[in-house]
C-alpha cells in the first residue's frame, strides 16, 4: 500500500507516517525509484502496535525502543493492550453511569448519596499499566520512584526543594544555548541529583530528556517553571550525555 492509502485506511495524516519514517519508528518495506513509500502487511501490523501503545500514553521514543527489542513479543503485547483497554473501558462505563445519575439528581428526579457521586473515580494506577511498566518501562524511573517512596517526610521535602531549585535555575537561563557553560553546569547538577535517587546511565539520562518533550505530561509539569523549559532541558541533557561519552 502507498502512504496515502495507509493514511486513509488508518485515519492518520500522511505527515504523521512521514514523521514515523524519519525517526525510524515505522520504515516502509520499500521506496520506489519515484520516491513512493510502499507499506507491507508487516508494516501495517507494526503500525497497529504503535497506535495501541500511543493510545495507552507511551511516548514515541519509548514505543520505538520497545518494539525494536529482540525480546518483544507481539502476541503478548496485544494481550496486555486488551487487558489495559478493558480496564479503562470499565472505569469509563462507571463514570458515565455516575454522570447520568448526577444529571437526574441535578434535575431533582432522584436522590444521590455522597458515595454515589464519586463512583467510577479511581486514582489508583491501572494494574495492567503497572505490568506494562514492568515489562517495557524505564528501570531508572522505577528505581527513583521506589527510593522516593522509602524516604521520610523531611527527606522528601528536601528533595522536592532541590528539584525545584534546579528547575528554577534552569528556567532562568533557558534563553541561553543548551551547550553553553551555564546550561551544562545546571544539567550536570540535575544528572547528579537524579543519580542520588536512581541509576541513570548517560543513555537513560538522554532518553529521559526526550520524554520531557515526547510526553505532554512531562512537558506541562516542567514548563510550569517557564515556557520552553522542557525543550531546553531535553537539548541540554542530550548534549551533556553525548559530551560525557567522548
UniProtKB/TrEMBL annotation:
Q: Which residues form the HTH merR-type domain?
A: 1-69
Which SUPFAM superfamilies does UniProt cross-reference here? Answer: Antibiotic binding domain of TipA-like multidrug resistance regulators, Putative DNA-binding domain
Q: Fetch the InterPro entries from UniProt.
A: DNA-bd_dom_put_sf, MerR-type_HTH_dom, MerR_fam, TipA-like_antibiotic-bd, TipAS_dom
Which keywords does UniProt give here?
A: Activator, DNA-binding, Transcription, Transcription regulation
**Listed GO molecular functions?**
DNA binding; DNA-binding transcription factor activity
Q: Does the keyword Transcription apply?
A: yes
Q: Could you tell me which Pfam families the record lists for this protein? A: MerR_1 (PF13411), TipAS (PF07739)
Protein known as? MerR family transcriptional regulator
Annotated organism of origin = Lederbergia lenta
Amino acid at each position: 500500500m502507498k502512504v496515502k492509502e495507509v493514511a486513509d485506511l488508518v485515519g492518520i495524516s500522511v505527515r504523521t507516517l512521514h514523521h514515523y519514517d524519519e525517526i525510524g519508528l515505522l520504515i516502509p518495506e520499500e521506496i520506489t525509484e519515484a520516491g513512493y513509500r510502499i507499506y507491507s502487511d508487516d508494516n501495517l501490523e507494526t503500525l497497529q502496535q504503535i497506535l495501541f501503545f500511543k493510545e495507552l500514553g507511551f511516548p514515541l521514543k519509548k514505543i520505538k525502543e520497545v518494539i525494536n527489542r529482540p525480546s518483544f513479543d507481539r502476541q503478548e503485547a496485544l494481550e496486555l493492550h486488551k487487558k489495559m483497554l478493558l480496564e479503562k473501558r470499565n472505569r469509563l462505563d462507571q463514570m458515565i453511569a455516575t454522570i447520568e445519575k448526577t444529571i437526574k439528581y441535578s434535575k431533582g428526579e432522584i436522590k444521590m448519596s455522597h458515595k454515589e457521586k464519586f463512583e467510577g473515580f479511581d486514582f489508583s494506577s491501572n494494574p495492567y499499566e503497572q505490568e506494562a511498566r514492568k515489562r517495557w518501562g524505564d528501570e531508572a524511573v522505577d528505581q527513583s520512584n521506589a527510593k522516593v517512596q522509602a524516604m521520610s517526610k523531611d527527606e522528601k521535602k528536601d528533595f522536592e526543594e532541590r528539584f525545584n531549585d534546579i528547575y528554577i535555575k534552569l528556567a532562568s537561563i533557558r534563553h541561553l544555548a543548551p551547550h553553553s557553560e551555564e546550561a551544562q553546569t545546571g544539567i550536570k547538577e540535575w544528572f547528579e541529583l537524579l543519580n542520588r535517587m536512581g541509576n541513570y546511565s548517560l543513555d537513560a539520562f538522554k532518553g529521559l530528556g526526550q520524554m520531557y518533550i515526547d510526553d505532554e505530561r512531562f512537558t506541562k509539569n516542567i514548563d510550569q517553571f517557564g515556557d520552553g523549559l522542557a525543550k531546553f532541558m531535553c537539548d541540554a541533557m542530550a548534549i551533556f550525555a553525548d559530551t560525557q561519552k567522548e
